[in-house]
Amino acid sequence: MEKITIDDLRKVVALSELPDEHLKWILERIEYSEFEDGTLMMRKDDPVDFMWFIPEGRMDYYLDVNGQHVYYYNFQNDSITGGVGGLLPYSRMKASPGYAYSVGRSITYSLHKKYFQELEQLNPGLIQKLIGYMTERARTFATTQLQHEKVSALGKLAAGIAHEMNNPASAITRISIELSKRLKENYRLTEKLLQFKISPDHIQSIRLMVEEKAHAVKKKLSPLQRMQAEDDINDWLEEKGSGEVNIAGETFVDAGIKSEDLESIRNEIDKDAFVQVLHWVENLLISQRILKDLEESSMRISNLVGAIKSHVHMDQTNELQTTDIHHDIENTLTLMGYKLREKNISVKKVFREDLPEVPVYVGEMNQVWTNLIDNAIYALPKNGELAIETSFDSKSLYVKIIDNGPGIPPEILSRIFDPFFTTKKVGDGTGIGLDLVNRIIKHHNGEIKVNSIPGKTEFTVCIPIREVKKDKV
Hints:
The chain has 473 residues and is an alpha+beta fold. Helices cover 49% and strands 20% of the residues. The strands form three sheets. Strands 1, 2, 3, 4, 5 and 6 form a six-stranded antiparallel sheet that branches. A five-stranded mixed sheet has the order 8-10-11-13-12, with helices on one face.
């Protein structure tokens, strides 16, 4: 071990103003260590029993997030960390939560925790300074955790959006190809009609009948009624000698056309011409149905874009604003629809009709709904049920998110809001989500409670109706 002097200790920022006798006391109790560049100085779960001073070099600290080392903090001899790390007085840390690596050649002087009480008696001012460094370290860790959770939430949201967008986008591609075929078929069939000398007025009357049926309010048929209607059409086609044309009755039933409508067309033209008319009408009906599918798919994309903009609070300021909680929750459910469908989860909404708008940071509160609903979906088995209930009183608004999953074991219920605590398997959760939820709700002067038994886990979010403090998480 190199001989350490009082002057060496005084180079450490945290110790620079200590009197010589105090530095001498520390000098007699520390252990010297030296690390080359890239050396692993501390592993995750290693016991932490020492406070160390780092007069030279730098220590970069990484946490294990889903199996990857993620940079969080660095210790070096500056005014931010004071050149101090490891276990500090009054810290509750027992094991290292991550990994520390030397950057360049690093030197540490380590003081065992058994000397902390004596050090406090010797120099209470130093202890207060060390607590200040520890507080700053905790604040930086919390800020970094929040940033990582937001990035993680953004990644999940982006994946969900891509999944949700893919289905209607693929449908639009298929529809456009099929519609192109139908348009070409329409040219061919129209030429056939002209060959049979069917007048333009006659064609127009058939088209108007089809459009009238399309716009008429049709009562939804039961499966049995639908089967009977299709059979009626098919039987009529068979009876009138048109069965060989291979036209499906379901196309006409979907459009609200009955056998008597076809009969009225047949009575005005001969059999061969009528067969061509049937093909032409069928192609027209299928084209209209394709256009309706196109409209629904494009509307779904439009609704998703609207939900995304509202959810991430685009085109709006990041200030405190009143919001419709029901609308925000509906947007969240829309964006997480693919997860609900994957497990065939039913959603039961018991929304209070006269729920007041509340002042919140909308973007932050949307993170609350996303995390709580995502956790509920994760906990639910296939064919489970998610219930969302809202209510209010004179002071607060309440949102309950309930799932009928297996529940949270009583022995860990008190820990679920702790940073990095998670019951999810590696890769599925960071253990930061509920900690973030808790901090956001506290930022709104609200509170969150959880009750859980097998078959019912209930998170209750309480948000004040009055305005909250106007700083940011």
